[in-house]
Amino acid sequence: MAIELKARRLVVVAMAASAALGLGGLGASAQTAIKPGDELRPLYAMPDDVAEGKQLAQSSCASCHGANGISATAGIPDLAGQRPAYLYLELKAYQSGARSNATMADRVKFLSDDALVKVAAYYAGLDPAQPAEGSAPKAVDPVEAGKTAAAACAGCHGDAGVSATPGIPSLIGEAPQYLVGAMKDYRSGRRKNDTMKAMTAGLSEAEMGHIALYYALQPAVRAQTPAKGDAEAGKAAAVACAGCHGDQGVSGNPATPSLAGQDAGYLAEALAGYKNAGRSNETMAGLAGSLDAAAMANVAAYYTGLQPQRVNVSKPLTPDEWAQKCDRCHGPNGNSARPDIPALAGQRMDYLETALHDYQSHERRNSEMAAMAAILSADDVKGMAAHYSHERARAVVFVTVPGK
After folding, report:
1. Which of 402, 388, 401, 372 is nearest to 336 (CA)?
2. Residues 57-92: pLDDT tens digits?
């Protein structure tokens, strides 16, 4: 299987064997959907076929994808030098509705397999786009960004999020999801604290995520504050709390806070807030409603004495580290050596971002890509798109060899 080859040489496009064209070559026109189990086989596109593909591409595709398959429109991918079977299969996906895009579906709905092969052969044979100018933007290090943003928090919550001030909570040992939710609640006024409302007012969701990640990665240390109350009595009273907050005060639910090692004054104040409706949570209001001030102090003392644990969160990978995983399918530096898997090198940055978000939302359906994209943060998506858009795209010749 090979891509275009200039002048009089042949162009070969890899197609689905049973679903694309008949054995007679490029003449069949049935718009048959690709089915699981279909295999790829070589189909030879002659120079005349490529010329016809060019005419069709210029009349139907160039207004969006550029005169030479290099897009000048945000969000629209470059097609020049893309792998031929991938182009064909994606065009078929638009025809069958497997990919939803009204403009693309309208452009391809009446095209035969013969026409799709020729268009794919034409674009595959063009020189790919050059990488974006300059070096890739420096990727955001979310942990360092969180450390910088969290400097404003240290005055109250202590260095590295370990409280040394009675009544002020430690921030270590909590899942990022919980801390982000708490910051949003302060910003919206759902949780009442004027200082915290002012501190969170100017934070974006990304900045909140960075701060939460920074604290989640810090060593687990008990709050450096005294505890009033009877811890043994608090242990008995805390039995009802274990279902949500864990047997040893370490939550297994990222939306529920861990209590182990937390400042006792803060815990007692929080319980009082749930009891008097200063905090809104039906479950907690019911549990706190039966506790008097002494019992709250006891529960707080019990949890303060427990050992906190660091959250099971890893330091995010850099774009280069993510690329090592992606290159296993998409080829070295994003230059795919497989005819049915797209090259990423030199592709538009905005398009790559959009594609990854579409896999995350299942707007584009591919189980492997959905699984990969699901674990990417917004920073990861931006970093990956920037990384590949600045890689040099290289054409690949798919060589057929006789069987043994």
Report:
1. 388
2. 999 999 999 999 999 999 999 999 999 999 999 999
Q: Which residues constitute the domain of residue 254?
A: 142-304
**266 shares its domain with 225:** yes
SS3 of the chain: the string is: CCCCCCCCCCEEEEEECCCCCCCCCCCCCCCCCCCCCCCEEEEEECHHHHHHHHHHHHHHCHHHHCCCCCCCCCCCCCCCCCCHHHHHHHHHHHHHCCCCCHHHHHHHCCCCHHHHHHHHHHHHCCCCCCCCCCCCCCCCCHHHHHHHHHCCCHHHHCHHHCCCCCCCCCCCCCCHHHHHHHHHHHHHCCCCCHHHHHHHCCCCHHHHHHHHHHHHCCCCCCCCCCCCCCHHHHHHHHHHHHHHHCCCCCCCCCCCCCCCCCCHHHHHHHHHHHHCCCCCCHHHHHHHCCCCHHHHHHHHHHHHCCCCCCCCCCCCCCHHHHHHHHHHHHCHHHCCCCCCCCCCCCCCHHHHHHHHHHHHHCCCCCHHHHHHHHCCCHHHHHHHHHHHHCCCCCCCCCCCCCCC
pTM assigned to the model: 0.80
Among residues 342, 352, 389, 346, which one has the least CA distance to residue 124?
342
Judgement on whether residues 155 and 293 belong to the same structural domain of the protein: yes
- Is residue 179 a part of any domain in this protein? yes
In a domain, 120, yes or no: yes
> Which residue from 7, 12, 37 is spatially nearest to 25, judged by alpha carbons?
12
pLDDT of residue 35: 61
CA 205 to chain centre: 15
Site of tokens 């189909």: 43
Give the pLDDT confidence of 151-209 residue by residue, as tens digits: 999 999 998 999 999 999 999 999 999 999 999 999 999 888 999 999 999 999 999 99
The pLDDT tens digits for 24-68 are 233 333 334 556 566 777 788 899 999 999 999 999 999 999 999
Domain annotation covers residue 162: yes
135 pLDDT exceeds 90?
A: no
Q: 198 with 232, same domain?
A: yes
